[in-house]
Design brief:
There is one protein chain. By secondary structure, this protein is α+β, with helices and mostly antiparallel strands. It folds into 2 domains: 37 residues; 186 residues, Beta Barrel (Porin), CATH 2.40.160. The chain contains 3 helices and 9 strands; from the N terminus they run H-H-E-E-E-H-E-E-E-E-E-E. It starts with a helix and ends with a strand.
């Protein structure tokens, strides 16, 4: 009788163990299915960062005759918003190199500068998917500051140089397309610009005559048209 009772207890324990592990497997299966179908899963698996640049700014940047080596980083802050920061190193542009070669007597200029951009983006919400950023159409407010110094390498005293400062406040509209990890970000914009060219000579700095500056416009209206491309992760 005792042996039968012990066998019954062992069978009961085994049955409990089997039911326990079966319940765990069933719970995991249901949870995984819920995870895959939920917006929470979409939010976790969505790409939240984008590194990008524009290779064409190396030929011509925001300042005439100055090249711009740009790197931008966008980070998603919520389901439909992000912040993008961009830094650029400025050097002698392609067209300035050609102008130097064609000048007589020869001119050898040195260009050094930087540019900083910051913008806040709002991605328009879609009905089919609550998680939008960083994909789709967006509206962005942008601040841009660029500073460059042009000197003549033959001037050993380095007392003659040009100082260029471009400050812009823009409202941009664009659409960022992401295919797997590749991102393409074209945009247009409208805003206000405050651009100054200064000349330093004999320890004195003066604002340059606008007629002496190529491709310079005194209009404060800023119209932007461009793109960035990069890698989303």
């Amino acid at each position: 009788m005792n042996n039968k009772l012990q066998k019954y207890k062992h069978m009961k324990i085994k049955l409990y163990i089997i039911l326990f592990f079966s319940e765990i497997l069933l719970t995991q299966t249901v949870f995984c299915q819920f995870y895959q179908d939920s917006t929470y899963a979409i939010q976790i698996e969505a790409k939240r960062n984008v590194l990008k640049t524009n290779p064409f700014t190396i030929i011509q940047g925001s300042i005439p005759f100055v090249s711009e080596f740009r790197l931008a980083y966008e980070h998603v802050t919520s389901a439909n918003s992000s912040i993008q920061l961009s830094g650029s190193y400025m050097a002698k542009g392609f067209y300035l190199i050609i102008a130097e070669a064609a000048s007589s007597p020869p001119v050898n200029l040195k260009v050094r500068g930087y540019r900083f951009q910051a913008e806040y983006r709002y991605y328009f919400r879609k009905r089919s998917n609550k998680i939008n950023a960083p994909k789709g159409m967006y509206l962005a407010s942008q601040f841009s500051y660029a500073h460059a110094k042009i000197t003549d390498k033959k001037n050993t005293l380095q007392d003659e140089y040009y100082l260029i400062t471009y400050t812009n406040y823009n409202l941009k509209f664009g659409i960022q397309l992401i295919k797997e990890n590749l991102a393409f970000d074209p945009f247009i914009g409208l805003g206000y610009r405050d651009n100054t060219w200064q000349e330093h000579f004999n320890n004195a700095t003066s604002v340059m005559n606008k007629d002496d500056i190529p491709f310079y416009s005194s209009n404060h209206l800023k119209i932007s048209l461009g793109f960035n491309a990069g890698w989303a992760f």
